[in-house]
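Protocol step 4 of 6: structure prediction from sequence.
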Amino acid sequence: MAKLQPNSVDIEKWLKLIRADGVGPATFAKLLQHFKTADQILGSSVSELSKIKGVGFKTAERIAATREKFDPATELDLAQKLGVWIIKLDDKRYPPALKQIYDPPPVLYIKGSLTRQDNLAISIVGSRHCSLYGQEQSSRLAHFLSSAGFTICSGMARGIDTAAHQGALSAGGRTIAVQGCGLANTNLI
């Protein structure tokens, strides 16, 4: 079993923020750009929060009312039990290409490892209810790309996603499964 990587420094504060009502990736980025640190965001007043373009007074109230309600210790304990480590956007281990999208997730939950090779990745996603031809082509494309050194990313759902992972593995390549659910769905991890 691989050694569990350490979580990012101050991850508890980031978890509180991303779990606050009204804080998605875009709002989180605006808050961090303005306040610079999670401590400053957590300590800001409703008035200060509402001055951020795109936040507004009602959202600022929701953020202030809920930012201390989430218990990061429980989340971190569950993550450790499941062999998951958690990194934040400013961690040097955060995938560089993912940082470049419009609204990168502020926090990533990772089971397994990330390698330098994963910086050259491509996603193959599609229907769960696909044709046999679609599955074959997904697997074939993933096999070819994996043989060329790409890491294949997909969602781990049935259909096209599963075929992509299988194609990459058949070539001896790497895959990354991006789940659309949280740690509470332990049957998926």
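Step 5 (inspection) to follow. DSSP finds nine helices and five strands in the chain.
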